[in-house]
Design goal:
The complex is a heterodimer of chains A (299) and B (294). Chain A has 299 residues and is mostly helical. In chain A, 77% of the residues lie in helices and 1% in strands. Chain A has a two-stranded antiparallel ribbon. The chains are: A mainly alpha (299), B mainly alpha (294).
């Protein structure tokens, strides 16, 4: 009898620890929503202006809270990183899945793990102090510029893009490739015309995961891309992203008050955007895992 | 005669497509090479700038506005404390949750819901956890900008990863282990405690160390909480603290280029700590795999 009650207590404790996920989610939603609520309750702010305004001037006499410049900054930085990173990542994955020998594959894995394991602050250091001077020299960019952050972030998102696309390509049955070879196709033709289209949903998921990571990246854009919110798509300009505004508030560069509450509203928007992208990507990955490939193509 | 020409053309086109194939392979190989070269460039530039700055004084001195006297002692201590406290919070909850999901949970709506939550929490940007940390731990629980608030923030950030790796480690233990134990009358918890957990432990520890090495390199979540003004190591849980990533951040932004060298030196120290943590993790996994009898 005693044993049974002990068993029951333990299973409740375990259930409680697993339910921490619920508490954490509630904590996130509460923190963001409460801050955002304080922000929108202020008479100087309206939701419409927040979502459509083109001026982000958080402090000073007449503050203005239009989030579009921050959204443009995030779009420029993350979109630019994806523009470089996705083709290179998919190319590298194609090489590793289809052409590389065992020895190259064996060294590729740890190299990608190291790239993924280097803290983002180190990438930020590299962007500001190594890449940025080169960009300034060649293109005459401003001291802080989006370009240096874009270049470094495109490398940062490689590990996730390569590993997810590589998994997708390698889950294509061998028979499909062999059928293509038997028809006289070369390795390249097989890779591009058979493997790539068959793995397309996995590659899409990989790209979305890379995009979500780039959107959420903070330290690189904070260090290298600057802190001037501008509605611009010129990568040589100084910009501010959603994440780097929150970081600017965090470092105390902005006086407390409404500008700090604004960070929570921006954080809520960031949370919603990354959650949506991750949600779509994880759905695609789950579909592939459940054998969606075979069902769609063969039956 | 005509047939011969056809054959020649066919041969040429085969040759052309094989040539094209080689070019294609070379292009994709160079994509991979870009990643390798970038990594070498990054490590080289960090090491060449910072290695001369590393000496005993740098490791044992306190931060200073004079670059020649500045050291990272409080940052090292702060990072180590953060790591230990994060471990203390994240391990019991993370492993408990993993045991629940792998061994106890029924296949019902709530379990499914938990899994979805955990998966989505893993994708939340780290700066969002910074906001949560400051709103919940610093203000709501009134812990202030303290070591305790910082490590709780890092703990909730790394929990999803820890739960996922721990659950995977439990799932690879063969079913027969559980059946054997249950067959001789052990309860579910006894089975897990004595016949599943011990075998899964090396993998779990490996996963936890890897998750922790991510957390300790993070800057964004503790940007709100840590402080550059905490120039002495924390002596209680409620003291302010400094950490290695924060030090790198402030010195990289410093206008004086001498501090950039100090930032590189700090990066080297951080990378060495991460490298040795990874080394320990790999060693544990390797040892367990060679000793495995099943």
């Amino acid at each position: 009898m005693k044993r049974k009650s002990k068993e029951r207590i333990i299973s409740y404790i375990l259930l409680l620890t697993a339910s921490m996920a619920v508490f954490i989610t509630i904590a996130i939603l509460y923190a963001l929503a409460a801050g955002a609520f304080r922000f929108f309750a202020d008479e100087r702010v309206s939701i419409i202006e927040f979502l459509t305004g083109k001026h982000w001037v958080p402090s000073g006499g007449t503050p203005s809270f239009g989030v579009l410049p921050l959204l443009a900054g995030t779009t420029l930085a993350a979109g630019g990183a994806l523009l470089f990173g996705a083709p290179v990542g998919i190319g590298a994955a194609l090489y590793l899945a289809e052409f590389a020998g065992k020895r190259v594959r064996a060294i590729a894995k740890p190299i990608l793990e190291i790239l993924a394991g280097i803290p983002s602050i180190v990438y930020g250091f590299f962007a500001l102090l190594v890449i940025s001077p080169i960009i300034r020299e060649i293109f005459g960019a401003s001291y802080f510029n989006a370009m240096s952050a874009i270049i470094v972030m495109s490398i940062m998102i490689l590990p996730i893009i390569v590993s997810v696309s590589d998994d997708a390509m390698r889950s294509i049955p061998k028979e499909i490739r062999e059928a293509s070879y038997a028809m006289g196709a070369t390795k390249w033709e097989t890779a591009v015309r058979v493997v790539l289209p068959s793995a397309s949903s996995g590659i899409l998921a990989a790209t979305l995961l890379g995009l979500a990571r780039a959107i959420g990246e903070t330290m690189v854009v904070t260090l290298a891309a600057g802190s001037v919110a501008q509605f611009t798509f010129n990568p040589l300009n100084e910009i501010q992203t959603m994440t780097s505004y929150i970081a600017q508030v965090a470092t105390g560069d902005i006086p407390p008050g409404i500008a700090v509450d604004a960070a929570f509203a921006v954080g809520l928007l960031l949370f919603i955007i990354t959650l949506t992208i991750n949600f779509i990507a994880s759905h695609i990955v789950a579909k592939i895992k459940n054998g969606g490939w075979r069902r769609r193509r063969i039956r | 005669m005509e047939k011969e020409e056809d054959k020649m053309n066919e041969f040429k086109s085969i040759k052309a497509s094989h040539f094209k194939s080689k070019i294609g392979v070379a292009i994709t190989a160079s994509c991979f090479l870009i990643a390798v070269l970038f990594l070498i460039w990054l490590l080289f530039s960090v090491f060449s700038q910072g290695i001369n700055r590393i000496n005993l004084e740098f490791l044992t001195n306190f931060p200073s506005y004079k670059p020649d006297k500045a050291g990272i002692f409080p940052a090292i201590v702060g990072s180590v404390y953060l790591m230990l406290l994060t471990l203390a919070f994240a391990i019991p909850i993370g492993v408990g949750a993993a045991i629940y999901l792998a061994e106890f949970a029924g296949n019902n709506i709530y379990t499914n819901f938990l899994r979805h939550l955990i998966q989505n929490l893993a994708g939340v940007p780290s700066i969002v956890f910074g906001l949560v940390g400051v709103a919940i731990f610093v203000r709501f629980f009134n812990l202030g900008r303290s070591l305790l608030a910082g490590s709780l923030t890092l703990a909730i950030m790394s929990l999803p990863t820890i739960i996922v790796v721990a659950e995977e480690s439990l799932r690879v233990i063969p079913r027969q282990f559980r059946e054997g134990s249950l067959a001789i009358g052990a309860t579910k918890w006894e089975t897990v405690r004595y016949h599943v957990l011990p075998y899964a432990m090396p993998d779990i520890i490996t996963g936890i160390i890897l998750a922790l090495s991510r957390a300790i390199g993070e800057t964004a979540p503790i940007l709100f909480i840590g402080s550059i003004f905490a120039k002495t190591p924390p002596s209680s849980l409620l003291d302010g603290f400094l950490a290695l990533p924060l030090t790198i951040f402030y010195w990289t932004r410093h206008p004086n280029p001498q501090f950039h060298e100090l930032a590189s030196a700090t990066i080297i120290v951080l990378l060495m700590i991460l490298l040795s943590m990874n080394g320990v993790a790999i060693a544990i996994r390797h040892r367990a795999q060679t000793r495995r009898e099943w």
